Amino acid sequence: xxxxxxxxxxxxxxxxxxxxxxxxxxSNAIYNPERRAHEGxxxxxxGAAPAPAAAPxxxxxxxxxxxxxxxxxxxxIAKKCMTCHTFEKGGPNKVGPDLWGVIGRQAGSHExxxxxxxxxxxxxxxxxxxxxxxxxxxxxxxxxxxxxxxGLPKAEDRANVIAFIRTKxxxxxxxxxxxxxxxxxxxxxKDQEAAAKPAAEAPxxxxxxxxxxxxxxxxxxxxxxxxxxxxxxxxxxxxISKKCLTCHTFAKGGPNKIGPDLWSVIGRQAGSHExxxxxxxxxKLGKPWDFESLDHFxxxxxDFxxxxxxxxAGLKKPEERAALLRWLRDQNDNPPExxx
Length: 340
Ligand code: HEC
Ligand code: HEC
Hints:
Cytochrome Bc1 Complex, Chain D, domain 2, single chain, mainly alpha, binds heme C, transport, globular
């Protein structure tokens, strides 16, 4: 294969990665349909590229409202959900899964229900705020979800519904703490800021796609390691991981250092380790880490997530990344399936 062809393939993969990233960002920034309609923005955000004219508006948090929310009002509103969901212990799945105990339950995990990949990819247990974002606008939060429900635009309605859902559990989850409420408010502020300048923050696929043609730039050097991971030697990977230890631990319950602890990072939502102050660049990724995104990130952190605080030049050799990812895969409560 000529090196030009290799470059084209590398560029295609890179652009693919960026598009995936774009979708993540879009699904992360929740759009307010009323405001969008008002501003006359057209089109759907479910696709690859966000329209620059769209005016995304962050979803108002409900953590603060929950303590004073009214479960009885919520039950009345939840009649809308009952077309598709039951809320009883051991209740049947209907069009949607039974929602008894859904707060704190792993997304996409109710027995016997065939979830979309969109919900399975959420990759972590439902929190109050995740449900809040999801029911505000399901297809923006989880593009490709089978839940064909337009969403509840009013924060008050969502708070009441969630207060009702909270009672539908063996033991209701604790109400959000002051710290949780603060975190939700802070996140809201950041989402609003990000929403205010989506075009400036979005990655520039054109620039990266152009790089291979000129023969320069890091994009042209990227070779995916995915197909090499299954056969790679975890012991070699462990040796390579020493480079990461300056900043990271890889132990279950290990402390955050300069970077977050990386136990179970594959499958974990990017930017979600408790107690670590991530850059917006990582939080914006908006989905769980998988082999592919890690392959790109570790190749060149600053290209994959411009603005990241991870000041690590990157591992340029695909064999090294393959070995590292093979080893990293085992540092996990639920080691994910190896890529073929
Ligand atoms: C038209 C049918 C429909 C309506 C109405 C509906 N849902 Fe759903 N819901 C679904 C389907 C289908 C899924 C599975 C989604 C998937 O796999 O993509 C789902 C999934 C969910 C999940 C994720 C459950 C899990 O186990 O991960 C939650 C939470 C949820 N719905 C809450 C609600 C709430 C709250 C309402 C009312 C405000 C509601 N839904 C209204 C069909 C519906
Ligand atoms: C010089 C310090 C440093 C080194 C060396 C380093 N990292 Fe990081 N890493 C960080 C910081 C800081 C962050 C948080 C980035 C942010 O918020 O922008 C991070 C974030 C990450 C994340 C995202 C975690 C999450 O919870 O979303 C992964 C994955 C990661 N690093 C993997 C690695 C691997 C693998 C290596 C070794 C090949 C490595 N890092 C080397 C500092 C470092």
